[in-house]
Every structure is written in structure tokens, then in C-alpha cells.
Amino acid sequence: MNKKNLVVLTGAGISAESGLKTFRDSDGLWEGYDVTEVATPRGWKKNPQLVLEFYNQRRVNVLEAQPNAAHVGLAELEADYDVQIITQNIDDLHERAGSTKTLHLHGEIFKMRSEEDESLVYDIKGDIKWGDTAEDGAQLRPHIVWFEEPVPLIEEAARLVRKADIFAVIGTSLVVYPAAGLINYAPWPIPKYIIDKSIPYTSSITNLTAIPRPATEGVQELIRMLRAKG
User: Fold this and answer.
1) Among 176, 160, 168, which Cα is nearest to 218's?
2) Residue 143 known to be catalytic
3) pLDDT of residue 176
4) What are the distances in angstroms from CA 115 to CA 24, 74, 149?
5) What are residue 128's phi and psi, to 5 degrees?
6) What is the H or E stretch that residue 53 is in?
7) Residue 206: its pLDDT value, please?
8) What is the pLDDT of residue 220?
9) CA-to-CA distance for 32 and 188, rounded, in angstroms?
């Protein structure tokens, strides 16, 4: 029997319950840093040392974090559905929970790349230091899509959403574009679910069920709803 395609877009809210702080909850500050200083090309040019230190600490935070019930619940849905995760998060909690198809729109904290050649990407678990270079001789930087940079995987993500039989949005405010626009690619007849403590404005979306709960509780409710429908 062919499994239905369940496509899930996740944001910072799902990782927040694992203790990873988000900038949207703190007036544009992320762990006390101005986002423009540590998450833009301008910030990198101005003070690359600060940017490297910031992401080195994020890497430590992610290593210490554990997947929560929301991550685990989505992984377990693979028993009944062909689950494709599209995440705005840079952590690896979906993978550690057992999800086998995860597309990272905004990059990955455990990867680094040449600042000149985006195709030169390497795994990293420790720190990136100023002076560390890629094989092209250029400085290594976090493999993160910063604000004001294009999102290379957005077209692939849109293609996946177009093929969805069921679409769910979890833990995202739907304000960071282009990721926020992905919901508009979901076929209009299919069931759609949105899980967040604060449901964003979505009145133009058809066949939408809102679950105004934190991700851990909301995913369990989603699982119950899906099982009830068979």
C-alpha cells in the first residue's frame, strides 16, 4: 500500500521545547545578541570573530539539547506516512529523533563552508576558528543561510509541498520569508494543520485545522486526528 505524503514545515517553536532559544521571543535578540550582528552578511564582514563565537556556542547548545516529544512523534509517523520534514531550524533534532527525510532550509549548525565557494561544505562538531580555511584557501564560515541571503533550497521545498497529500506547519510564526510562503504551494483540497502557541493569521488558507498548543502537545493531537481519519 502506498503511504500518503505528509509534508511538515517546522520552525523555532518545535526546538524551543528542547531548550534552544529563539530570537522571535526576545525582541530581535538571540541569546542577547542583535540578530543583524551575528546572522547577516553585514555582521560577518563587520566582525567575523563575533559571528564564529556565536555559532560555536550554538553548536554547544545543540549538542546538549535532546529531541522532544514533538520531534519523536513526527519520526514515529513514518510508520504510516511518507513523512518529509522541511525545517527552518539549523539543529539536528529531527534526525536524532529518527526522521529520515529532513530538508534544512536555513542551513545546518554541524556544517561549515567556504565563504567564497558554497559547494565546499564540511562537517563540524567543534569550533570554527578565524584562520581555518577551506580547500580553496577561503575562510570557513557556518553553513547557515543568514538574513538577507537567498535560500537555495526553497524551490526544492516548494516542489515537495506541491506533492503533499497532507500538510502541517509546526512551531513557526509564518513571518520569515520565503519559508512562510510555502503553505501557499500546498494543493487547496488537501487537509492542512497548523500547530503553534500563537496561531498566525491564515484566514485565506483552505481546509485548515488550527491546533493552538505548544509543539509537544500539538503533535500528539495531530497524531490523534490523523489516526481518527485513517
Assistant:
1) 168
2) no
3) 72
4) 27, 34, 13
5) -100, 130
6) helix 48-64
7) 84
8) 98
9) 41
Cell output for 36: 543583524
Parts of the chain belonging to CATH 3.40.50.1220? 1-20+68-106+151-230
In terms of DSSP bridges, do strands 166-170 and 192-195 run parallel, antiparallel, or are they unpaired?
A: parallel
> Among candidates 171, 169, 121, which has minimal Cα distance to 142?
121
Topology, domain 21-64+112-144: SIR2/SIRT2 'Small Domain' (3.30.1600)
User: What is the reported pLDDT for 178?
Assistant: 85
Q: Which of 71, 104, 106, 143 is catalytic?
A: 106
Distance CA 136, CA 148 (A): 25
Query: Where does CATH 3.30.1600.10 sit in the chain?
Result: 21-64+112-144
pLDDT average per 10 residues of sequence, the chain (230 residues) = 93 94 60 86 97 96 97 98 97 98 98 97 98 98 96 97 97 80 94 90 80 97 92
